Amino acid sequence: MSTNPEFLEVNPLFARPGEATLAPRYTLGDTMMGPDTAFQIIHDEIKLDGISRLNLATFVSTWMDDQARRLYTESFDKNMIDKDEYPQTAAIEDYCWHIIADLWHAPEPRTTIGTSTIGSSEACMLGGLAFKRRWQQARRAAGLSTEKPNLVMSSAVQVCWEKFCNYWDVEMRLVPVTDEHPCLDGHDLADYVDENTIGVVAIMGVTYTGIYEPVQEIAAALDEIQTRTGLDVPIHVDAASGGMIAPFLQPDLVWDFRLERVHSISTSAHKYGLVYPGLGWVVWRSPDLLPEDLIFRVSYLGGDMPTLALNFSRPGAQVLLQYYLFLRLGFEGYRLVQQASQDVAMYLSKGIAEHGAFTLVSDGSDIPVFAWRLAEGHTDKWNLFHLSDRLRARGWLVPAYPMPDDLSDRIVQRIVVRNGLSLDLASRLLTAISEETAYLDRLDGPMPVEEHQPGFTH
Ligand SMILES: *Cc1c(COP(=O)(O)O)cnc(C)c1O
User: Fold this and answer.
1) Which residue of 142, 288, 325, 337 is surrounded by the most CB atoms within 10 Å?
2) Where are the domains of the chain?
3) Which residue of 58, 118, 120 sits with most ligand 1 atoms within 8 Å of its CB, as the best mutation to test the pocket?
4) Is the CB–ligand 1 distance for residue 59 below 6 Å?
5) What does each C-alpha distance from 82 to 87, 90, 227, 275, 313 come to in angstroms?
6) How confident is the model over 160-196, as pLDDT tens digits?
7) Which residues, 6 or more positions from 76, have their beta carbon under 8 angstroms from its beta carbon?
8) Is pLDDT at 457 greater than 60 in this prediction?
9) InterPro entries per the record (predicted)?
10) How do 305-307 and 358-360 pair as beta strands?
C-alpha cells in the first residue's frame, strides 16, 4: 500500500498480469500500462466528480439524444479548421450561422458574416476586437488618439469581458448593479460613455440572475447620447444563454438586429443551443461591421480559406450536432424544449418563493435561470453556502455566491434549468430544499462560517 500522493496505486485493485503496482502521478511513467487498466483508473477517478445532470450550476448541455451521440462518435475526428478537406462540415457551419442570423433578424441574413467559435468567450472576444479595430480606424482617420479605448458594461458581466479588456488593453467601465437598477438599463449611461468608448455590452441572460438587460432601452439611451454629442456607440449583445431562448419564448421582445445599434451578437451553442461543449456563434449585422483586416486567409491546408478565430484547430463534431438539432427540432421543437425548461424553472421558483425562508431575486421568466436569497430575518444560524453543502451531500449542485458590485454583500443561490431536468426531478429537488432547510432551522447553534469560500461556477 502506498499513500504517497505522488503515486497512483494500481494493484491489487485490478490484479491484471503484468500491470505496474505504482504509477507516478505527475511524471510520465517509464513504461506502458494495459489499456483496460488505464481506462478503468480514469473511469473510476471521475466518479468523484459531481453527476452532470444534477449539476444545476452549469449552463452547459449535459444531455443529448442517442442519434446525436452516434453522430458525435462518427465525427469527433474532424478538425473544424480543415475546411478544404472537410468541405461539407464547413458548409454545415455556414448553414448554422445563417440560420442563427435569420433567427436574430439580421437585415440580410444570407449576405452577412459570422462564424462558429469554441464558446461564447471566444465569440465575445471577436465581437470586442471588431469594436476596437473599427474605433481605432475611425480615430486614426480623424487624426485622433487611439491610446485609451474603453468598453462600457454592467458589473454583472461574465468573466470573459474582464478577460477581453485585460488581454487587449481596453479600459473596463463597469456600471454597478443596485436594487434600483439590477442590470444595465441605460440609466446614467452618459456618465460612462465618451469619445474613447469602443462599444457597450448588453447581456441577454445575466449570469448571476438570469434576467435580460433591456437592449432596446440601452439602445435608446445611446441614441439620445448620439443626438446630444454626435458619438455613435455600437452594442454587442452577449446572448450566451438568451440568444437561443428569446427567439423561441419571447419572440416579440426587441433585443437583436431589429435594433440598428446592435452590431454583433454572440451565443453559446453549448448552453441553450442544446449542444455538448464547446461551441459558440458570433454573427455581425452586416459584413462592413467586421474589419476585413481581422480576417486571415490561409492557403497551407489547400484552397484559400478565410479564418476569423482565436483558435486554429477546434473540434468540428459540435457543429454537426448543432445542425442535427436544427434539422431535428426546427422552430417548433426548440420552442417546446425551451418552454419545458421554463415551465420547470417557474415551478421551482414558485416553490422557493412560497417556502418562506427565501426571497426571489428572479423567477426564471427570462431565461430558465433564477436566483434567490435568504429572507430578511429568517435566520442567523446558517447561510446559503450551508444549504448548498447540504444539497451537495444529496447529489444536487446548487451554487451560492455573492452578487457583483454594488451588491457584493448579498449572497444568492441559483438554479439553471436545462433540457433534461424533468418536472419529476424538480419536485424531488424542492423536497430536498425543504428538508435541508428544516434541518438547518432545527440547529441549536450557528453553523461555522470560516470554511465557506464563495464557490461560483459560471
Ligand atoms: C456562459 C457565459 C459566457 C461565456 O460562455 P462560454 O461559452 O462558457 O465561453 C459569456 N457571457 C455570458 C452572459 C454567459 O452566461
Assistant:
1) 325
2) 7-49, 67-326, 341-441
3) 120
4) yes
5) 8, 8, 47, 21, 8
6) 999 999 999 999 999 999 999 999 999 999 999 999 9
7) 315, 317
8) no
9) Glutamate_decarboxylase, PyrdxlP-dep_de-COase, PyrdxlP-dep_Trfase, PyrdxlP-dep_Trfase_major
10) unpaired
Kindly state the average pLDDT of the residues 52-60. Answer: 94
CB 202 within 8 A of CB 264: no
Q: Which of 200, 206, 196, 171 is nearest to 187 (CA)?
A: 200
pLDDT in tens, 351-387: 999 999 999 999 999 999 999 999 999 999 999 999 9
Ligand 1 mutation target, pool 61, 62, 118, 121, most atoms within 8 A of CB: 121
* One-letter amino acid of 12: P
Closest-lying ligand 1 atom to the alpha carbon of residue 270: 7
Looking at residue 367, its pLDDT comes to 98
> Which one of 125, 271, 281 would you pick to mutate in the ligand 1 pocket, going by the greatest count of ligand atoms within 8 A of its CB?
271
Ligand 1 centroid to Cα of residue 442, in Å, is: 39
Atom number, ligand 1, closest to the C-alpha of residue 119: 7
Residue 117 CB–ligand 1 contact under 6 Å: no
341-441 to CATH, choices 3.30.1360.120, 1.10.246.130, 3.90.1150.160, 1.20.1250.20 = 3.90.1150.160
Which pLDDT tens digit goes with each residue over 279-327? 999 999 999 999 999 998 877 666 677 789 999 999 999 999 999 999 9
Topology of the domain covering 67-326: Aspartate Aminotransferase; domain 2 (3.40.640)
Output the CA 122–ligand 1 centroid distance in Å.
9
pLDDT digits (tens, 9 = 90+) for 144-157: 999 999 999 999 99
